[in-house]
Amino acid sequence: MKFDNRVGFALIFAFVVQTGGAFLWAGAAAARLEEVERRIDDQRPVSERLARLEVRAEESRAALDRIERRLEKRR
């Protein structure tokens, strides 16, 4: 079985084009991943501060509950 030379060149061309597309896709995926990592790094201090504020809010709520119980006992 013989193939025309154009078929061999067409297969090589298709392989090169698909490989180039795969490299472009991988590059774009890497860029998106870097962007997500950068955003996560930017948000880390904010999330830590939010956690500290939540703890302080819980402590304030507990203090308020104690004050309310003391006031109720005095009545």
Short descriptors:
0% strand, single chain, 75 residues, mainly alpha, 1 helix
Description:
There is one protein chain. Helix content is 93%, strand content 0%. It has one helix spanning 5-74.
| Share of helical residues | over 70%
Topology order in helix (H) and strand (E) letters = H
Please tally the helical runs, counting DSSP H or I stretches of 4 or more residues: 1
Distance linking N and C termini: 105 Å
Instruction: Describe the sheet with the most strands.
Output: none
Dominant shape: rod-shaped
| Percentage of residues in DSSP E strands | under 5%
Q: Which class do the helix and strand fractions yield?
A: mainly alpha
The counted number of beta strands is 0
Residue windows where pLDDT falls under 50 for at least 5 positions: none
What is the averaged pLDDT score? 90
* Alpha-carbon Rg, integer: 32 Å
Quick synopsis:
The protein is built from one helix and no strands. It has 75 residues and is mostly helical.
Please specify the SSE layout and strand pairing.
Elements: H1 5-74
